[in-house]
Amino acid sequence: LAQCFSATATDLFVFIAFPTMGKRAAQSAATQQAKVQKVETVEDTFAQEIAPVVKHLEQAEMNESSIELLQSVAPFCLKSIKEDRHAFQESMLESIETALKGIQAQRQASLTGAEEHMAEVCAKQDQNVTKRAEADSKVEKATEIHQSKADAQGSIEADASKAFEALRAAQEHEEELAGEKAATLKVNEGFEKFLVTFEALKNGTYPGKEWRERNKAIDETLKVVEITDVSLKSALPAALRTKPAERGPFSQKAINFCEVALASRGEKLKEKIGGFEDEASARARKSQEAQEAFKLIEEKLAAAKAETSAAKGELDACMKEKASIEKEMKAAPAAAQKSQKALEKAQEQLSQSQAVLSKFDELKNRTLPEEAPQDVAEVAEAPESTPAAVTTQD
Q1: Which of 143, 206, 247, 374 is 20 to 30 A removed from 186 (C-alpha atoms)?
Q2: At what angle do helices 29-56 and 276-364 cross, to 10 degrees?
Q3: Per-residue model confidence (pLDDT) at position 275
Q4: What are phi and psi of 304, to 5 degrees?
Q5: What is the C-alpha separation between 236 and 255, in angstroms, rounded?
Q6: At what angle do helices 249-274 and 230-241 cross, to 10 degrees?
Q7: pLDDT at 374 over 70
Q8: Residue 153 contacts by C-beta under 8 Å, 6 or more apart in sequence?
Q9: Range with the largest mean pLDDT of 4-18, 261-275, 307-321
């Protein structure tokens, strides 16, 4: 330690404070006390100046033991003026300066990062304004497309409903034919039976005792044969009760009219029965056509539904994008405030590092005070003697 921290011009102030043999012994007690107070003031000022430097070294990216080493040697290295430092002190000061510059570089990088982040936040706010406008436009367009697809689907659904009703009616009409045919065959069977009855009436073959059955047959004939002529209709019952040989011309005319009417009706029934096969084919064809038409409309409806669903999906995506942008815009002020605080903190920390490094440079490059040479000269004039006490740096 004696070699590392040898007496310097600053240390000479300490020697002045103690009584020595020779010329110094003549100084007054008041002068000695003043010198002691001056040294203490210098020591206090130095401690205040170096405290921020020592404290700041805690931020260095070094292991704990290295930081403690630099903190412990900093006061001893900086207490000496530049001209009086030896190689070890200079080496330690270089290490301290490197550590302080490293802290400053680290904080400069933090400030740069904070500035970049702040710029990104501001840029993102501007971008979100543009994105919001674009999102509004997309949502509006997607809404129009979706509404158009939905309207088209609704129109096709109405057509599909009509096509389904047409198919059902055609199928029911086809199914009804079997019942119509059965009913017609039943009517024809009854008509053929009636012809037998009418033939008996016309030929007068009813026995006298069956006059009730004969009257019933006459009433049935009036129901079966549609006679619009009142005279003929009135003459027919009497004509049918009269024996064929006893009928007059008008009675015979009424019976002939019945025969023609019944023959015509019989022909119509035969035609209807014979036309059932063609009618069945026609109705089956209509059912098939209705089925095919309904199938086509169903396919068209399925395509329309797919298009509507796709348009709805696109609209939902646009709405989701818009909501995301709005969420970011809502959070932007808080993010900007947080980024601003981080930037201010980084600026403050960098300013602190710069101030500490500036103070370090000041302490590192300080020289002997102006009054120091006079004190040194006084010491040089004094004869060599052994001081009563020597104060050294700890």
Answers
A1: 206
A2: 160
A3: 87
A4: -65, -40
A5: 7
A6: 100
A7: no
A8: 301, 304, 305, 307, 308
A9: 307-321
